Amino acid sequence: QLQLVESGGGKVQPGGSLRLSCAASGFTLDDYAIGWFRQAPGKEREGVSCISSSGVSTNYADSVKGRFTISKDNAKNTVYLNMNNLKPEDTAVYYCAARIPPYTYCSDYGLNKYEYTNWGQGTQVTIAS
Predict the structure, then answer these.
(1) Least buried of 26, 59, 63, 105, by fewest C-beta within 10 Å?
(2) Residue range 35-46, pLDDT digits in tens
């Protein structure tokens, strides 16, 4: 069974940092582009960042550019999202998902949630004083 599991969320003060993990089981991340999404209460799920299957190509939503970094460790079959200089508006449940094959790369037009599958259960990130 193909499964993604997120972890690493928590509550931090504005300006703080967190590292989220997305661990895959039942498949290898070598074959999939992985996206991070987030959903705040009452809002649509939005794309945050994507990394290609090779790990060479990445992209970011404008709202997180320069603050978030996506990476992957193929040996651990895990994708990470390092989040720095966190803001209250980053508060949301964060999800990872795999881009539906045959697309092993990230779209130049941003992350479309309908192009992704095998969603994890999410991890809560809260930024507050």
Answers:
(1) 26
(2) 999 999 999 999
